[in-house]
Automatic annotation (TrEMBL):
InterPro entries: DUF1559, N_methyl_site, Pilin-like. It holds the Pfam family SBP_bac_10. It comes from Armatimonas rosea. PROSITE patterns: PROKAR_NTER_METHYL (PS00409). This is Prepilin-type N-terminal cleavage/methylation domain-containing protein. It comes from the Bacteria. Residues 30-152 form the DUF1559 domain.
């Protein structure tokens, strides 16, 4: 006579499988996120290399941040595109993102939403940190942020040119009681204005793309009172990808941002 499983034996097997699943699933999730982080850093390296090629071709001048005089066609993500090797199937108009895909160098694999609906890029230009000449009014309602000279950068290897970023805005405020630390006082956002800051980037939630430029503590795009709060976004196990002014790329721990105020000489977001 063949003997089947008893109810106790079946329950023990199910319990063992459940325990193994509870142990292994987080490991698989971490491995997938690590792979996405590797792809994001690869994107950063290509953007950094393209920037250095552009700088050499244009008299050691960094790309324009954004310009209304040409509907943004000379902004960094457009002018770097010819220097980036891409498949013909992924050639897109970087102004309106027609035909964008997750294979785009400008899109982080961990960015939420589809690129065409979410926004033009996962990486923001540090236009306030010394990579541009600041806002220039060309008259007639036109203006922009023309690129600065490489000679004016004190430590290119220690100044972030692009940061993996997102529009953070209101949804993060209930999660972070010190969300507005680093917001300039004139915006009325409040908070502690000098570093080290008390905010917690690990709990921030993004609600849209950074579009083109990332804010920095003490800068106008930092507070959600302006442009929704464009901030570096730690999508990869509490780390974010940074592309430096000399072209190299590395991952930055989220809480490193607490040191990046304009009054701190070790800030990597300011041309100190």
């Amino acid at each position: 006579m063949r003997r089947g499983f008893t109810l106790i034996e079946l329950l023990v097997v199910i319990a063992i499988i459940a325990i193994l699943a509870a142990i292994l699933f987080p490991v698989f999730a971490q491995a997938r996120e690590k792979a996405r982080q590797t792809a994001c850093i690869s994107n950063g390296k290509q953007i950094g290399t393209a920037t250095m090629m552009y700088v050499q071709d244009y008299d050691e001048t960094y790309p324009c941040g954004w310009g209304s005089q040409d509907s943004g066609r000379t902004m960094w993500r457009n002018v770097l595109q010819p220097y980036i090797q891409r498949a013909k199937t992924d050639q897109v108009d970087m102004y309106n993102m027609a035909g964008a895909s997750r294979n785009s160098v400008y899109v982080c694999p961990s960015q939420p939403g589809s690129p065409a609906d979410y926004g033009p890029t996962s990486y923001g230009y540090n236009y306030q940190g010394g990579l541009t000449q600041g806002w220039r009014d060309y008259g007639g309602g036109q203006g922009g942020f023309p690129g600065a000279s490489m000679a004016g950068i004190n430590q290119p290897g220690n100044l972030i040119a692009y940061a993996e970023s997102g529009e953070v805005g209101g949804p993060s405020k209930p999660l972070d009681p010190f969300f507005n630390d680093g917001s300039p006082g004139w915006t009325g956002c409040g908070g502690q204005e000098t570093s080290p800051y008390r905010f917690n980037p690990e709990v921030w939630k993004e609600r849209w793309s950074v579009d083109w430029g990332v804010g920095q503590p003490g800068g106008e795009d930092w507070g959600d009172c302006r442009n929704g709060g464009r901030r570096p976004m730690p999508r990869h196990a509490k780390m974010w990808t940074a592309i430096f002014a000399d072209g190299h790329t590395k991952a930055i721990p989220a809480n490193k941002m607490r040191e990046m105020g304009p009054n701190n000489p070790v800030s990597m977001l300011h041309n100190n």
